[in-house]
Protein 1
Amino acid sequence: MTMLPFDDRDGFIWYNGEIIPWRDARIHVLSHGLHYASSVFEGERAYGGKIFKMKEHHERLLRSGALLGFQIPYSVAEIDLACEEVLKVNNIVDGYLRPVAWRGSEMMAVSAQKSKIHLAIAAWEWPAYFSADARLEGIRLDFAEWRRPDPATAPVASKAAGLYMIATLSKHAAEAKGYNDALMLDYRGQIAEATGANVFLVQDGKIHTPIPDCFLDGITRQTVIALARSKGYEVIERAIMPEELANTQEVFLTGTAVEVTPVREIAHYSFTPGAITRDLLLGYDEMVRKPG
Ligand SMILES: Cc1ncc(COP(=O)(O)O)c(C=O)c1O
């Protein structure tokens, strides 16, 4: 499959308050964000022209910047409007939005207190490619060699670009072995999350998920926990060791991009996506696509 490179597409990008042609949305090579990972971003989806949990994403974007010591110079309401404008000018109904903020070029050293904070927002089409039945076949994960760091080591609640370095390494290693993604343990050896999604286990009819104390407490994670509880399932947030996968019947991931994605294998453990995964996958699909 040939991929259209992301810097050579038609369309428009919102860049520091203006809508500009897609190909003109450039940064200088001497940007602090590029050299020192002083960058935070969001991943959001629009369904039927409406951005799901838009306010929550933009509140998290501002919080992520604050955790890296910078203030994004736009309010949540301004970013909401900017995202809606990006969808409109690009005629996107079902798509993915990527706001990104970073420190600019005024200072090029570890200390960059006076650098300008930039914000850009791009969006591209992302229709539903696979039916629920195809998705229910499940994906395959390997264990990652890299671990999610201790909250004393990194600002783990920030959706910060730097935290994705180990995610890319882990996903590439898993893909090289024929897997779809990697399951990351945390610094204590507990199950943490996949490289871009949270994880849930079904054991004897109950849903278990790790406490998000060293990784992102995903907006989809919170949505699916509420959905599961509203359907009468018991959801338990607790420390989970990888050996417990032996007593686990179903596993699924949650995230803006993956929505609810069943998992059929994690290294030598196998699962059968079952009734609870199916119920939540369909329930989430229905919720995000609900008009109004
Ligand atoms: C590392 C990581 N964990 C979890 C998630 C899920 O977060 P959300 O449901 O807010 O998309 C994401 C995706 O944003 C992610 O990149």
Protein 2
Amino acid sequence: MDRKVAAQLTTSLKKTHHLLSSSMSGWLYAGFVDGHFNCGTWALPSAETEPVAPALGIDETPLDLIAEIEAISDPQTQLDRLSQLSQTPYRTLVEDSFRDRSQLRATYEAEAERKVLRVLILGAGPIGLALASALKVANAEAVSVVVVETRCLQPGIKAPYTRHWVTNIPKASVRELVEPRLNAIFENVGNEIYIGVPIDLLETLLLASCKDLGVLFYCDPNPNLSAFQGVDLVFDATGGRLQSLDFPDDVKVPKIPGNTHALPESYGVGYDQFAVNAKAMTPKINIKVIEAQGQKLPLLNNQPLCIPMMKLSEIPMIAFDKLMAYTRNNNYDNKFYLWSGKLKSEINEALLLINLTLAEYRVLIDKLPLRQPLATAHLPSIGLDERLLTVFEIMGKVPGVVIERPFSYRPYFRDRYDATLLGLPMIPIGDSIYNGHPKVGNGMGSHLGHVKHVLDKIKNVLPSP
Ligand SMILES: Cc1cc2nc3c(=O)[nH]c(=O)nc-3n(C[C@H](O)[C@H](O)[C@H](O)COP(=O)(O)OP(=O)(O)OC[C@H]3O[C@@H](n4cnc5c(N)ncnc54)[C@H](O)[C@@H]3O)c2cc1C
């Protein structure tokens, strides 16, 4: 592509300011509903990234994952089989496109030659994959796409996806980004409006589909990116890991008034379905923003906004009513948020998000290095709220429930992004711009809307397919 056209496109794609209001909807929720649990510091001991499991051997059976899944009509069987296939390192699924590392450049050139647009995407998470898929669906002949991923079992072999968390993604927001076979699968397992598919399964489907569409994958903990010299556009879809974010330990509160927000009258209408207690909401909050190194970090009532949390996932719907009754009746401070996923009702599962005090977070973070079945988890009995212990006890008897590692909602918005690669400015996308609040649905759903926006801009400079 003409350098000038690519440079203009890059500049327009780096304008992300319109996403700020979407990011802010999470800050406001945290203030109005969960403010009681703001721990007031960004300096939390954080859980290390979940370690990659050692390779148990690669299954050499050829796998046409999409065809196999699409052929199953029963939604439960379809989802079970997809889970099973996604956890097994089948060579055809997890092996990258550059088997012979000495031929990296040559393999790439053979694919990229004669393409109008050459795109490099760092990060094979849901957003990097969705962008790769969308570009190929739009015009496979005109665009070459390479996706680089560092989370590997070994160089050349991608680690299977593990985040089995239900999602809040409207079907409409992915329709144009994926091939028809994927839309058919979403239609079969999702409810009327949402795709419902947990993140790990969505990633697996997108990975398999991208491979079928001709996207090249390069999986290496230490990738040699110079092999891709000559690309036109570079995207950072690493979830903010490429250029690390800076959350200061020592915060100087700016002497500006900030913005005072009064709880809107209609705020929280319908939140009762999540066990949220409207009476516990805060009527007035103040948000100030610290700007540092191109990022905006919100302060809630003059303190760093950071809410420690944990979650129970894969909760069978059979346990939902009992859990709803307990959490609704014991939620004077909005500790609990119970969300029924968006899969078809007969295969649906729920997620319980639990706000933690800083002390509870500290007690739990060391005990839970990995997500694990709640029934067999060794959990502390002191230092935790009685309600938490009761929920662990009730849900520990329900087969299948998983306890996830504690995490925190520590919002950021990247206002400016100056990283370059291969002499080109990088374009951030997904969580590399901002992190959503899991209770507001402004994460993946909104990021996919942004992918569509990026796609439309790119389509403007491509020939018609
Ligand atoms: C603790 C937590 C809980 C959440 N719970 C939910 C939930 O229950 N439901 C829900 O829908 N959403 C949830 N979210 C939000 C959701 O996970 C994100 O919106 C989504 O993962 C963002 O996608 P992404 O592709 O932008 O980034 P990521 O999913 O972070 O993907 C980034 C990818 O880049 C790779 N990578 C990292 N560094 C490099 C590098 N240098 N080069 C190449 N590749 C690299 C990573 O290995 C990863 O595969 C949660 C988020 C967090 C943090």
